[in-house]
Recover the amino acids of this structure.
């Protein structure tokens, strides 16, 4: 179907959309520690999560079952953009003069323009099946909110998105996408919830934060029987749904008779990273592949969770309301500098990804903002696609690998995840091109201060 | 490869990218009248065009040869996004309750997000081959400028884009795309050209216009040996390059064993329309297909060139500098109301498309703005993709056809062209959703006034 070596774009027919999601918990040599209830410090029972999530998702969250069948209505929505293309970056290779073969898996062809709909569609489906008619969620710049609004519409769910006020006012485009798909967007903090009103009483001009928006969305969902809450990363079931990415990439590599030596993806909460990497880690854990790929998580130097954080129990949110998760964290009170890769500005990380890094199965690598944009512009000028700032961290990782191959004079096969396009991030490119983009030092003092606030978990 | 009937997305491997462009001049029952030199009123000789265009493109402009081979370096760039998907709009069909089968050919997966790179890549290639190192062009909101900047970068050409000042200031996103790809953007009117300086002397605060920007781009190209000018629509060679769209669609229909009864595309200068429709008209002219498709050009009621214009010789630009073209026109002095479908705000139309309408081979249909956005939102909420306002005119046409099929109780196969995404047009959706979008009456008086200025061509 495609000529090995010569192909630019390796495509699959929609019959090749994966039929099941892969659960890496079944194959990890050592499983992650369980989450803990913030009061009792005991693992939460499924019932504790039932006010927020449908039972199907709670089961996927805790199960050790290796595969979950993808329901046909979910695969049917996936058909709108899946399988996504795997590209061979011939032009970037030539520009770098590298002996490496560089491939990228491009998730920007989804209606929302990123990998996020892989899980938003699944979550909307399971909620609908459980009789839920409304969803709430939070969003920063709007990537997750728009992905969930698209999915909610496909299953006739209403949706309310609490959008951080400063983004609501300064970045209207993803808000308009949410509204075009029929979703409701509320500037957070709002007067619709007790949490919001409390903040506004203290500071009527509060710019909001992701932590506040989470509190509002959770409060509303917990208080209404018809309404559930939906989260776009970090949790096990979210990473599970994203594994369609890596599974497709494996089929595409088989078509051209190649296999990656190294797999690189950007990592914020971990869902994009897990989606691409876990199927390749499965190959490694089971010896089920021509070679064992090295796996790299790329993160921003300004929010270096995996490379500079501590591995400990911490809250998932800023306010300290969520279950405690064992993960790499910079402290739940840490507020990262305002880099443009908003999706990577998270103090913690997926417990599964954290454990894989802890045990040496995954390498983490941090990159500074200016170098990341330099790589992104080189990529845009050779391959055409303008990457999202988050995805640009993986571009940077791939360029570094390709230059190392050149310096060593040894070819290798590099796969990276291009998780989305940068159509709504052009202001950041503008700053870079005008030399106005800045790097941030490792925020050592802020991290130290935040880590001093870690919750105490006896025996952990 | 795909299951007939069940498929959502009919994809082709890149080996199926067409190997030649189709020239409808070879098959038209009656050819269009030739362009005329504005001074002599005689057809221009190829040499007259040589200061602006390379000989390969001039030959394609005037030739009656049925096919032109697509050079391999052009096909190689096409591989970055071609073949584009043909979608079956199952969800839109269900929402409309229509017995019709609706298909759409989606060109928004190109790096620039529209069909425009199909010709910009070809034009950049031929200019490079002719030893040209710089290109100039004009752009309004930036669709064409960004497509040409992407293409210029692929063939190491410099590019300067004269961008209408009001767009330069109010719509920065496509300007930033051009710059990200390495192009230079100049606010027009500028002090770089005599035409620009003349305008600024009269009115230092001139908001600019497409006509002024064309004058500046042409003036610079005509005055420099290393520099040519590039145009994004209207001309025969531009429509020729776009025929990869319709040729791919034909292969995709063959894969699922279907064929359109009606083909609908939006029409501004005519390149998107011609690209999709001409291969199907070829089938009709040669009897080379299971049936003869009806072909519809969708245009805005606010700029109803094909439905309310006159068929006459007129200038292609506002200033009256270009050759005279026999076409439907609202008068070169006509300034269309400020609808959001900027790409359809053109007083004239392709001479080939005009002749096909004149001779009854193509039907033209005009739609008002509010109804067009209503269809676009219904499309976005069912199919996911948010259409460009231009493309939304074809969506509206398809919806009307599907509702007619429902009213008549007769199934039919509808194909429409979704020429681009609306990621940079969300402000227009915002206005629609808030009830602030307005329709414009047919601007009868303005048209009457403009038509009084038509150039006099003896005997035409």
């Amino acid at each position: 179907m495609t000529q090995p070596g010569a192909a630019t774009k390796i495509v699959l027919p929609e019959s090749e959309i994966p039929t099941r999601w892969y659960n890496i918990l079944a194959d990890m040599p050592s499983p992650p520690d369980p989450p803990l209830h913030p009061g009792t410090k005991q693992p939460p029972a499924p019932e504790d999560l039932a006010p927020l999530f449908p039972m199907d998702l709670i089961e996927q969250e805790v199960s050790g079952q290796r595969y979950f069948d993808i329901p046909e209505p979910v695969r049917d929505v996936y058909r709108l953009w899946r399988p996504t293309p795997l590209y061979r970056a011939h032009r970037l290779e030539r520009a770098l003069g590298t002996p490496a073969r560089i491939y990228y898996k491009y998730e920007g062809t989804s209606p929302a323009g990123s990998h996020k709909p892989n899980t938003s569609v699944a979550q909307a489906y399971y909620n609908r099946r459980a009789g839920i008619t409304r969803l709430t969620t939070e969003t920063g710049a709007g990537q997750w909110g728009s992905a969930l609004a698209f999915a909610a519409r496909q299953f006739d769910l209403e949706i309310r998105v609490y959008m951080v006020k400063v983004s609501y006012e300064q970045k209207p485009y993803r808000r308009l996408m949410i509204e075009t798909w029929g979703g409701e967007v509320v500037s957070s903090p709002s007067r619709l919830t007790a949490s919001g009103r409390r903040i506004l009483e203290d500071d009527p001009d509060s710019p909001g934060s992701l932590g506040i928006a989470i509190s509002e969305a959770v409060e509303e969902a917990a208080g209404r029987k018809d309404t559930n809450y939906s989260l776009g990363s970090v949790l096990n079931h979210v990473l599970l749904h994203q594994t369609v990415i890596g599974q497709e990439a494996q089929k595409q590599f088989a078509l051209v008779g190649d296999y990656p030596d190294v797999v690189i993806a950007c990592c914020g909460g971990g869902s994009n990273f897990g989606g691409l990497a876990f199927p390749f880690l499965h190959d490694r854990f089971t010896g089920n592949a021509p070679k064992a790929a090295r796996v790299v998580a790329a993160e921003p130097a300004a929010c270096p969770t995996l490379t500079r954080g501590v591995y400990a129990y911490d809250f998932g949110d800023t306010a300290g309301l969520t279950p405690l998760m064992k993960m790499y964290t910079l402290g739940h009170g840490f507020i990262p500098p305002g880099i443009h890769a908003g999706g990577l500005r998270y103090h913690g990380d997926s417990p599964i990804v954290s454990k894989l890094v802890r045990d040496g199965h995954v390498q983490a690598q941090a990159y500074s903002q200016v170098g990341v944009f330099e790589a992104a512009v080189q990529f845009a000028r050779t391959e055409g696609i303008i990457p999202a700032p988050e995805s640009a961290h993986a571009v940077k990782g791939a360029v570094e690998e390709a230059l190392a191959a050149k310096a060593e004079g040894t070819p290798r096969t590099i796969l990276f995840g291009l998780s989305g396009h940068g159509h709504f991030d052009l202001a950041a490119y503008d700053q870079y091109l005008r030399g106005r983009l800045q790097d941030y030092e490792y925020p050592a003092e802020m991290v130290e201060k935040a880590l001093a606030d870690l919750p105490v978990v006896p025996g952990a």
